[in-house]
Amino acid sequence: MADNLPSEFDVVVIGTGLPESIIAAACSRSGQRVLHVDSKNYYGGNWASFSFSGLLSWIKENQQKTDVIGECEDWRKLILENEEIISLNKTDKTIQHVEDFCFSNQDLSEDVEEAGALSKLPVLGVSDADGAAQESEKECAPVERALPGAESWEPEKTAGSDPASATEGNNTEITTESESSHNAALGKSTLEMGKTEAAPSEISAQEPKKITYSQIVREGRRFNIDLVSKLLYSRGLLIDLLIKSNVSRYAEFKNATRILAFWEGKVEQVPCSRADVFNSRQLTMVEKRLLMKFLTFCLEYERQPDEYQDYESSTFAQFLKTQKLTPSLQHFILHSIAMVSETDCSTLEGLQATKKFLHCFGRYGNTPFLFPLYGQGEIPQCFCRCKAILDHFGQRISAKYFVVEDGYLSENTCKNVCYRQISRAVLITDQSILKTDSEQQVSILRMPPVDLGQPAVCVIELCSSTMTCMKDTYLVHLTCPSTKTAREDLEPVVQKLFNLNTETEKETENEKLEKPRVLWAVYFNMRDSSGIDRNTYDGLPSNVYVCSGPDSALGNDCAVKQAETIFQEMFPTEEFCPPPPNPEDIIYDEDELAPEGSGFSSSPETKPEPLLEECISEGSTTVEQEHSEG
Question: What are residue 279's phi and psi, to 5 degrees?
């Protein structure tokens, strides 16, 4: 163990997943001494992102179930007479049924390596006292800031009104013509959200480039492949926490630009915003009016209980049939806006989900979702950067509280726990599932169940501008609650959307023209330990708290709620993840001031940080903390 490491801490956090990292940051911000450790040689646990070669190593490790935790032979000497032992797992048992397939030309020679590949150091260390994250290893180019023109679904605003623009704070207001001119005079162009880099129209008609397996390996560091696939609701708990804690400065985001639906055997774009509804060619004028009326009702349904109270015991799908909506509109609302089950979701739950979707419009774009550049694995790292590397074991560490990720607990501790499973697939493809003139799109598609009893599948397609895949490829994530192995659950959906033929096999003309080709794929099942009562764990001491791994939901609310609940149980009088002090508010002693000529200045002539802006430049968004002037 590091020679200068203290032997006592207030909190020891084991695991670097999202909830553990948030807790470590929150405890550090409140002045607690925190030791944050992880046995793995990468950040994030089951929330991690990998380069392609890193993912191949992860696949091999989980197929072989290699031991990953070292053990000190003399550890029993460190246990006192009045203490109990809680054993930790030596192997990660949260991942099962890992299967990977290559469909591209396998021209790989043995000496082909990932360009610039670097081995990662073990992630064990001490959190900063102020909880501030360090700069990311992946440096982003400066973002030119501009106030976007964003859609709003506020009920008091009339349909067909001018696009709303995000202003100071979290509110969305109508931008008048004079205000737009004023913004332009200040050098801030008002951009129409949802529009991305437009490629020449003839690109979509061209034959996709042939991508070989050796190219994927060689360009492996262009990939950032998430183990868990999620999006951030623009008014969700995680975005609010990122802004409140000022951690948002360490990440950049891209708008999810398309909401898709699978209807009558085809993938179609769903009109969700007012502008999309009125500009849609797939809806008749009658359908547009019906859709607008229903969505406006959903925003204020609590004020009109007479409209739905007779159907509270019915499913949301049954309620939609009573609203004079066409079958296609019912399908779009159920699967692409509310994104709920056709058989299990009640009317009230469906209305709540629809309102949440619409409420998130207008904050950062004309969809409710954001995606972090470089993948979901960036978010845990933003909350906690480790400072020390611990290269061997043997020191005894005492702490008031212990926070541990569920996957570390032994089978004996978890013998009474009944776990759910998540089915996951990650595909590298050569084309988008919906070809348009603009190729740089982030799309979300909710596929209805293929067979009776099967769950719906969430499909998220990422383009190369998200920094998660190489140029001329797309990264596609598929997720659903498990009923069987991941491959059995998800392959039927993959076959509906993609061409799985290898390049040596013949393909039909329809497959060649209509379906993107899968170049490489991996399937795996991941444990869902969310929502488990801590009393279910056997022999868990009162000062040990358990964090779950990722759940199957699209957003991150479960992880944030869990982190806040655990923090408040440990420190009920402390604020959860407060912002750091502004530099100009810090008072220094005379001997702490930098000496003259050192290059630092004690005068407050530094450039103030920008207000909370929905900033977009070439599809990239930065979410920042609001600062008051003076």
Answer: -95, -5
Query: At which residue do the structure tokens 């393909």 appear?
Result: 507
10 Å CB burial of residue 389 (0-12, 13-18, 19+) is exposed
Domain-ending residue, one of 359, 384, 403? 359
**CB < 8 Å & 24+ apart, contacts of 271-279:** 272/336, 272/337, 272/357, 272/361, 272/366, 272/367, 273/151, 273/153, 273/194, 273/361, 273/366, 273/367, 274/151, 274/153, 274/159, 274/160, 274/161, 275/151, 275/163, 275/366, 276/366, 278/159, 278/160
User: How many alpha carbons fall within 13 Å on the CB side of residue 117?
Assistant: 17
Residue type at 479?
A: T
Q: What is the spatial distance between Cα 496 and Cα 502, in angstroms, rounded to a whole number? A: 16
How many independent structural domains does the chain possess?
Answer: 2
Q: Are residues 293 and 389 in the same domain?
A: no
14 and 404 in contact (C-beta within 8 Å)?
Answer: yes
Same domain, 328 and 389: no
Phi, psi of 49 (to 5 degrees): -120, 145
Residues 347 and 378 in one domain: no
Q: Which residues contact 545 (CB under 8 A, 6 or more apart)?
A: 401, 402, 403, 404, 534, 566, 569, 570
Q: What is the CA radius of gyration of the chain?
A: 25
Q: Which domain holds residue 321?
A: 263-359
Contacts of residue 263, Cβ cutoff 8 Å, sequence gap at least 6: 328, 331, 332
Q: For the segment 188-224, what is each residue's pLDDT rounded down to a tens digit?
A: 332 233 333 444 444 445 666 789 999 999 999 999 9
The separation between the first and the last C-alpha atoms of the chain, rounded to the nearest angstrom, is 46
Give dist(CA 189, CA 29) in Å, integer: 37
What are the tens digits of pLDDT across the range 333-384?
999 999 999 888 999 999 999 999 999 988 887 789 999 999 999 999 999 8
**Residue 378 domain-assigned (yes or no):** yes
Whether 37 and 127 share a structural domain: yes
Q: Which two tokens stand for residue 482?
A: 């498990």
Structure tokens given for 489:
């659950």
Residue 302 within any structural domain of the chain: yes
Check: pTM over 0.85? Answer yes or no: no
Half-sphere exposure of 622 (CA within 13 A, CB side): 21
Please report where in the chains the tokens 């046995």 appear, as a residue.
39
Greater pLDDT, 541 or 80? 541
Q: Which residue intervals of 360-462 are DSSP H helices?
A: 378-383
- CA 235 vs. chain centroid, Å, equals 14
Size of the chain, expressed as the number of residues it contains:
630
Q: What angle do CA 375, 225, 577 make, to 5 degrees?
A: 35
